[in-house]
Amino acid sequence: MAALQKFWRDRRGTAAVEMALVLPAFVLLTTGGLGVVMLGFSVASLNFAVQDAARCAAVKTTVCTNSGTTAAYAQTRYLGLPISPVFSYSTSPCAHTVTASGVLSLNLLPQISNVPLTASACYP
């Protein structure tokens, strides 16, 4: 009986047990947060690329001369994760329109393995 009481009063190793309980949640939250930040950066970069390419098609006519050069210019302006976005250029009623689409592969959860990203910009 005394050995059992001594065992329950012993507090050595409690920090290791607490760390074993807290560490997996901390690592999961940290890596998940970094993933969300990188996704947000990719979306922002994709939006910037299409906006800048639409502006280039309207203003810098020597650089963005046709659909191919405008799409190539947009590709150089995208700095996000390597999702290989596809850019397209057209003239619409609003003027110069550039659209982009790509798929971000997460490979973390089977239910959410691919996230489609799209962006569109029109510059008069």
Task: Report what the structure shows.
This protein is α+β, with helices and mostly antiparallel strands and about 120 residues long. It has one domain (about 15-124). The chain is about 50% helix and about 25% strand. It has a three-stranded antiparallel beta sheet. A hairpin with an 8-residue loop joins strand 2 (about 95-105) and strand 3 (about 115-124). The mean pLDDT is about 90.
Tags for this entry?
23% strand; alpha+beta; single chain; 124 residues
Helix and strand content put the structural class at alpha+beta
Span from first to last CA? 86 Å
Determine the fraction of residues in helical runs and give it as a percent range: 40-55%
How would you state the average pLDDT, rounded?
88
Task: Return residue spans where pLDDT drops below 50 for at least 5 consecutive residues.
Answer: none
Q: Figure out the total of helices.
A: 3
Choose one word for the global shape.
rod-shaped
Give the count of structural domains: 1
The radius of gyration over CA amounts to 25 Å
In what order do the strands lie side by side in the largest sheet? Answer: 1-2-3
Strand content: 15-25%
- Strands, count: 3
Short account of what is shown:
With 124 residues, the chain is α+β, with helices and mostly antiparallel strands.
Write the layout of secondary structure elements.
Layout (H helix, E strand, L loop, with lengths): L1 H8 L4 H46 L7 H11 L8 E7 L2 E11 L8 E10 L1
Antiparallel strand pairs: 1-2, 2-3
